[in-house]
């Protein structure tokens, strides 16, 4: 960025889920590299951000302030009321980076006092700096965000095919205790953000049963919303492991994404719906097969070069049940052997 570096930076997002936070991390790290002395405020305008909760470890030292549920980008009626009574009342920022492309949301954010404003909405109409003529917006979230950062800072930030996380030694030790060396572990993550993104549970169970017959150990990663599935899975696959439900994973590690990432390195392959756990498998470095139905992989695909994708659209459907079990089994076997 030309001139004096900003002393205050505001970044707008609608919200952050677990998968989002991992995809956005190169951008967050780049922010601190570009503006090492700035106070960086992360604004989740519509909902909350996992950077202030379960993924706070990732933002430590990178983001100075997180504001959630700010009421920015919720309704076009904001354009009539302004921000006089909200969390941004009376505040001014040297630089605002808007990461989304809905114009009225960008216009609402634009009314926050600022010196420079970067936004891709309406072809960068409100943006203080614009990309070169003929610019094409990238497909992946990672590259979209890094392009905005390059525009804001005047520096280059290359895409990262993988994400290097420095896990705490105690987390790595616990992962090795829960999945000790010896067996060939295959991970299964049958949950997701909602039923439309979930391949039928009975299919995951059948594949786990077949993996057991091949001498491998099925490992199910069940989140808080999937605990009721445990008995059904265990009835068909008695030897399946549920490490996140192990007593040793309680306390600070309860459903910890960092623990799941650490355990991924103990697996020989993994299968997941389009979910945060799929991103954890990818970050952990294991070969992963991810299933897509109503969502498409282009923008939100995980950061890994060991990814296999199976889409319902390839089988004349958009619903997850359109994906044949045999196709997924073949992809999983290829991941294991590859």
What is the structure about, briefly put?
With 338 residues, the protein is of the alpha/beta class.
Which outline best applies? elongated
Question: What's the alpha carbon Rg, rounded to whole Å?
Answer: 22 Å
Number of strands: 10
CATH superfamily of the largest domain: Glycogen Phosphorylase B
Structural class: alpha/beta
What percentage of the residues does DSSP assign to strands (E)?
15-25%
Query: What is the CA-CA span between the terminal residues?
Result: 44 Å
Helix content: 25-40%
Tell me about the largest β-sheet: 5 strands, parallel
Mean pLDDT: 93
- The number of helical segments is 13
Model regions low in confidence, pLDDT < 50 over at least 5 residues = none
Q: How are helices and strands ordered from N to C?
A: EHEHEHEHEHHHEHEHHEHEHEH
Tally of individual domains: 2
Strand adjacency order, main sheet? 3-2-1-4-5
Name of the top-level CATH class of the largest domain: Alpha Beta
CATH architecture verdict of the largest domain: 3-Layer(aba) Sandwich
The CATH topology of the largest domain is given as: Rossmann fold
